[in-house]
Amino acid sequence: MIIYGVMVLGLCMFIGTAIGLTLGILLGIPSDIGGVGFAMLLLVFVTPWVKAKGWLPKASEDGIMFWNAMYIPVVIAMAATQNVAAALSGGWIAFIAGILSVVVCFVLIRPLAAMAGAATSTFGDETEPSKA
């Protein structure tokens, strides 16, 4: 049952990695720049849309919730494979990218929280307003 929803996650990961690799090529860095982040953003924005269209069965929602719970260990494992020393020796782009991403995340916290409203979860455990 857990395997449901993996296709959605996989598609988001492939698209996010492609965006990250393209961004790396455009910036002259032979590496993935933010591919996981792009994938997670894509998942955050696509999943509610797919669910609203009725294209996401309950089993797939449960599968995505399982992988959502596994997200932190997966990200830590992925971060452990990054070569931070090599990135920092490449020049100021690592510092600029790090600082810029933190600033953008700080700026986006309030609008994203406002968009989420009173809900604290992305999907799965919320109730429809008309059914509540």
TrEMBL record:
Gene Ontology CC annotation, any one: membrane
InterPro entries: Maln_transptMadL (IPR004690)
Record-annotated membrane-spanning stretches: 7-27, 33-52, 64-85, 91-109
Assigned keywords, A-Z: Membrane, Plasmid, Transmembrane, Transmembrane helix
Protein name, UniProt field: Malonate transporter subunit MadL
